[in-house]
Each structure stands twice: as structure tokens, then as C-alpha cells.
Design a protein that fits this description.
Blueprint: H1 2-31, H2 35-47, H3 49-60, H4 64-89, E1 92-93, H5 96-119, E2 121-122, H6 124-147, H7 160-191, H8 196-207, H9 210-221, H10 225-250, E3 253-254, H11 259-278, E4 282-283, H12 285-304
């Protein structure tokens, strides 16, 4: 039965992502703004719902290592696998705003998190500063969206009501499918004799990022690289600034010493992805494959240590 539910979960993910991307693209057309803006905000926040649920719940119950580790692991997966797989299949064209603004914000947020982790704890005050950073970022993105209205958009295929319904139903299917995949993959892994720690480092970390992966792949396949790249970068920013910020405000987050190395890797990966995005103004298939290999190497590292 668990194998059937695993397959059904993947079907929900794929169908939900298809509906979600169509709704998001339609909303961008209706508002006459670049789709990358929707990718950086609505899509990124929506697909980060699993990370939010896991991290905030873990923080409240006192498992702050899980909360922080989930965010760091999810960001590494987003940058290497979500962008990497999308580019390996459909080379991702870099949007000017993402290269000149959002990726630099992501590097800044990653460096800030590295400094906080090295201190050993993220306090309520520091959490509030992270939330302030999120608010400032959203203000900048929204102001830019209002200045860059697109006048030559074709009429959207869906009405406002249908677009919102597609967005909500698609997101619900993505979250339900993601949870179903994680839960049943965990059961299968235990039946195969995998340890809880290995399951946590692999299946849970990857599982909470499946919505970003499937959504970005679907967007790239539809030729909407703005949503594909914006979703990955926006999710990373949302994870650090909002999810970790809110978790820290609720309860100070302890940062285990071994997570310093992972945060350093996350920061280095942020730099690598912007280099790839700037070079040739696209992330090519070769660069995408290199990102995938880097993630395989990182996974081997965390298993062996």
C-alpha cells in the first residue's frame, strides 16, 4: 500500500505543480507584471509551506537543530538540485532582476545566517531583524513590479477567479502530494533498514523541497524561466528571512557547531549559482549537471561524517 501511496503522492505533486504554475502565470498576465515577480513571491512562499511547517513546529517543540538543519538543507537542495535539474533539462535563462538583485540578497542572507550560526544561537532580536529584512525585500520587489508593468502581454487564458482557484488547488495538491511522498518514502526506507538519521538527512530534507523542484521543472518546461529561477531563489530567501526569523522570534534557535560547515557550504553554493547565472546570462545544461554532481558530493559528505 505504501508504494501505491508513494506513486499517488508524486502524481499529486506533478498535477498540482502544473495547475499552480498555470495559475501563477495567469495572475502575472492579469497584473501585467513580469512572471519572475510572482515566482519570487507567491510561488516561492507557497512552495516553501512544507519547510515552514517543519521548521516552526520543530522550533516550538524545542528541536531547534531540526528547524535550522531543515532550512540549510532545503536551501542547498533548492540551489543545486532545483536549479540544476531544471537547467539540465531546459537551460534556464537568467532574468536581469534576479541577477542584479535577488541572488545578491540571497548571498547577503546566507552570509548573515553564517555569522549567526557561528555565534551558536539565533536570538529573538536577531529573528526580528531577519523578519525586518524580509519585509524590506518584499517592499523593494513590489515597488519594482509596479514600475515594470508589461503592456504587450496577451490576454490571460483564465479569469481572475479561475486563476486564484488554480493557484489554491494547485498549492493544496503540491503540499498534500509532498507530505504523502515523504511519509511513505520514510516507511519504505525503514523497511529497507535505513537509520533515522540517514532518513532525516536525505528523505525529509529532499521531501520538503519537492514542491520547489516539481514547480520549477514544470515552469521551465512551459518556457517560463522567470517562475523557475525565481521560485528557487525566492524560496531560499523566504526560508532564511521569514521562516527562520519567525521561528527565532517564537523561541531562540540553538545552532549546533556541526551546522557551521553546512551553512558555509550553503553560502558558497549561493555564490556558485550567481556565477553560473551571470555567465552567458543563462544556466546551461553543463552547469546544471555540475550542480547536480555537487549535491551528490554534499550528500556523500553528510552521510560519511
Amino acid at each position: 500500500m505504501m508504494y501505491v501511496l508513494l506513486v499517488f503522492g508524486f502524481i499529486l505533486l506533478i498535477k498540482g505543480a502544473d495547475l499552480f504554475v498555470d495559475g501563477a502565470s495567469s495572475i502575472a498576465h492579469i497584473l501585467k507584471i513580469p512572471s519572475v515577480i510572482i515566482g519570487l513571491t507567491v510561488v516561492a512562499m507557497g512552495t516553501s509551506a512544507p519547510e515552514a511547517a517543519v521548521s516552526i513546529a520543530a522550533g516550538i517543540t524545542g528541536n531547534s537543530d531540526i528547524s535550522l538543519g531543515n532550512i540549510i538543507g532545503s536551501n542547498i537542495f533548492n540551489l543545486l538540485m532545483v536549479i540544476g535539474i531544471s537547467a539540465a533539462i531546459f537551460p534556464v535563462v537568467s532574468q536581469k532582476d534576479i541577477m542584479g538583485r535577488d541572488m545578491w540578497w540571497n548571498i547577503g542572507a546566507s552570509v548573515a545566517l553564517l555569522a549567526l550560526v557561528m555565534n551558536g544561537e539565533i536570538s529573538r532580536t536577531e529573528g526580528a531583524l531577519l523578519l525586518l529584512g524580509m519585509a524590506l525585500y518584499l517592499i523593494i520587489v513590489i515597488r519594482n513590479a509596479l514600475k515594470t508593468r508589461i503592456t504587450d502581454y496577451t490576454d490571460p487564458e483564465m479569469s481572475v477567479t479561475k486563476s486564484i482557484i488554480a493557484l489554491v488547488l494547485g498549492l493544496a495538491a503540491i503540499i498534500a502530494g509532498g507530505n504523502m511522498v515523504v511519509d511513505n518514502a520514510e516507511l519504505i526506507a525503514k523497511n529497507w533498514g535505513m537509520s533515522d538519521s540517514l532518513i532525516g538527512l536525505t528523505i525529509v530534507a529532499v521531501g520538503t523541497s519537492l514542491p520547489e523542484l516539481v514547480t520549477s521543472l514544470t515552469a521551465a518546461q512551459k518556457g517560463d524561466s522567470g517562475i523557475a529561477l525565481g521560485n528557487a531563489v525566492g524560496s531560499c530567501l523566504f526560508n532564511i528571512l521569514f521562516i527562520l526569523g519567525l521561528t527565532s522570534v517564537i523561541t531562540p534557535v540553538h545552532a549546533a557547531s556541526e551546522l557551521v560547515a553546512d551553512t558555509g557550504i550553503m553560502t558558497a553554493v549561493s555564490v556558485i549559482t550567481i556565477v553560473f547565472a551571470i555567465s552567458g546570462k543563462t544556466t546551461s545544461r553543463k552547469e546544471g549537471l555540475f550542480c547536480i554532481l555537487l549535491y551528490v558530493a554534499y550528500t556523500a559528505y553528510i552521510i560519511l561524517r
